[in-house]
Structure formats: structure tokens, C-alpha cells
Amino acid sequence: MAHFNPWHDVERGENAPAVVNGIIEIPKGSKGKYELDKDSGLLKLDRVLFSAVHYPAAYGFIPKTYCDDKDPLDILVLCSVDIVPMCLVEAKVIGVMQMIDQDEEDDKIIAVAANDVSVNHYNDISDLPPHTLLEMQRFFEDYKALEHKHVSVERFMGREDAYRIIEESIKLYNETFPNGNEQDAASLKEVIS
């Protein structure tokens, strides 16, 4: 019996890549690292962060996207309220943070909640207060340090680069999951294992 999976069964947004649907896994301020369980579609606690840091923005993924790390494309959504896990949020894309995590490229799209007047006037990452980007960089460089894992933030780039990265992840998703369904996920599982 097929079941609902947020990664494959939620639309990425009709105005993608400019405005996308983000599915939030981790609320801002959390020390818990929650992530989508790809098999069940439920949210699971991966771990509690080892370091004395907390997520600087709501964190999740863009549905129907796929990246080289075998996961959907990550998104950080700035919002003036806490966004609860598994909430679908319309997110206006303003930039991207390019990271290297354990020698793998790991892009994080940066967006603002489209329906939050306190942040939706930001149109590009360059509009953000400088401290916001420093906080993001510090968090991602520190959050795995006590696990003896190395993460480095390579660069922040503007919305045009973010659009390109989203489009690439959509293309890769469409190639990897041509039917966007369970059958594709099952065949991928066999390829990976």
C-alpha cells in the first residue's frame, strides 16, 4: 500500500525557484536534529546536538528536489515566529550558503517566509543584517565540532545562484525519480545498498 511521503508527494511550489514550498524539520532555536525518515515519511530525532548551539533559523527541505548527498535540497527559512516541524511554509528564496560537510558539497538555500511581513521585504541575501549571516556561518561551522566532524562554509551567494542550484536539484530529482513515486524510491534503495 502506498503511503504519503512529504519529499515525493508535496509540490515544490508553482513559482519555483523564486518561491518554493519548504517543509520544516527543525524549528529555530532547537538543539534537536530532526530529519525526515525517507521510508516512513515521519519525522525522526536523528540526534541532540553535542555542542552548545541551536539552529539560527527554521531548517528543512524543498520537496521534489534531489542533491548529490542523496537528500532533498536543504532550506533555511527566516521568520519572526517559530515554525513547527512538518509545517509547510511558502518561502521566498534570497540566497544560498555553500558548505563542505565531511568533504561533500552541501548547499543550504536561504529564504524568508513569504507570508511574514517582518521579513518578506528582503529580496536578496545582501539585504540581510550582516550578523544574520555570521550567525548562520558560526552555527554550521560549530555544530558538529564536538563530534569531531569538519564543516566549512565556503561562501554565501545571492538569489540568482540559489535559483540555479534549485533548478539543478529539480532536474536531478526528475532524472532520479521519473515517476516521483514509491517505486522509484524502492529502486533507488536497491542501487544505494
Protein model, in words:
The protein has 193 residues and is an alpha+beta fold. It is built from four helices and eight strands. It has helices spanning 6-9, 130-142, 159-176, 182-192; strands at residues 19-26, 32-36, 43-48, 58-61, 74-78, 88-101, 104-113, 151-158. The strands form two sheets. The protein has a five-stranded mixed barrel. Strands 2-3 form a two-stranded antiparallel ribbon. The relative contact order is 0.19. The model has no long low-confidence stretch (mean pLDDT 90). Keywords: Cytoplasm, Hydrolase, Magnesium, Metal-binding.
The geometry reads as globular
CATH class category name: Alpha Beta
**Arithmetic mean pLDDT:** 90
What is the CATH topology descriptor? Inorganic Pyrophosphatase
Gap from first CA to last CA: 23 Å
- The CATH superfamily turns out to be Inorganic pyrophosphatase
